[in-house]
Amino acid sequence: MTYMTLSGLSLRDIEYIVAVDDLRNFSRAAERCGVSQAGLSEQVRKLEAFLNVQLFERTRRHVAPTPDGARIIHSARHVVAAARAMVEMARSLDGPLEGILRIGVIATLGPYYVPRLIPLIRKKYPQLQLQLTEGLTDRLLEKLAQTELDIVLAALPCDQTNLQSLPLFHEPFEAVFPKNHPLARKQRIDINSLRGDDLLLLEDGHCLRDQALSLCHSSGGENRRLATSLEMLWHMIGAGEGYSLIPKLALQHRTEWEGLIACLPLSEGGRQIGMVWRASDPRQQAFMEFGAFLRQHIPEGCQKVA
């Protein structure tokens, strides 16, 4: 058998084609990889020449893998994942968490939990270099599975296979109404009373949307008003468009809205926030210790979990 040299093949080039396939855009792929678009495009062309395969079909408005390219990129993902696993294994030999730690946080939690979390982590783990990513649950878990993230902070349960999770704390929901809403005069809200077409929701993809629909025994109706973020949802309530369920951490420091909005405790309802990581990651013990540290610092207004 003829020995095939790999001197013309670089791991960085393999990472480039995975990025182009993920984003279907050379400019955004170059931004993710931290190189110029011209440089990335040139390296992809060189890789195509080395492999003697056209990996992508390119037009001014369209980038997509060719059939042969799709098969090669599938293998490239395994190569990149194996390389990252090797780096993670080397890091784990040092004992405690060190180096870069890539944390994904769901969008309905990040802006309200992360600001109080960062100082604690920096003090406890000064050797860590944190890289934070915010997004929707499914996309963050996809990045985790593809080894683009190390840890995800999200609402549990997480039913995907090959992932480990650790509950951190319980975050209650509160019912938030415009001041003139009939239910705004109550002291406490029975969850069974929350029905009606004036329930405001986040757009599809937010796990908080599904939780609100379930608690309120409602459907997602085509004509229902939707918000792109928790902040916009808050503004829509203040404008008198309807009510919604909002997590406790997102309600703090809202004194400027006191004359427009009423926040009332619920008889029940909330979400369990947890830490998720790959079961194959060799840093299992270090992640468990990191999670135990987070469990020691429960945010105000939230409760311990078993």
TrEMBL record:
- InterPro entries on file: LysR_HTH_N (IPR000847), LysR_subst-bd (IPR005119), WH-like_DNA-bd_sf (IPR036388), WH_DNA-bd_sf (IPR036390)
- Boundaries of each HTH lysR-type domain copy? 9-66
List the keywords (alphabetical).
Activator, DNA-binding, Transcription, Transcription regulation
Output the PANTHER family linked to this UniProt entry. HYDROGEN PEROXIDE-INDUCIBLE GENES ACTIVATOR, TRANSCRIPTIONAL DUAL REGULATOR HCAR-RELATED
| Entry's family note | Belongs to the LysR transcriptional regulatory family.
State the name under which the record lists this protein: Hydrogen peroxide-inducible activator protein
Organism of origin: Sorlinia euscelidii
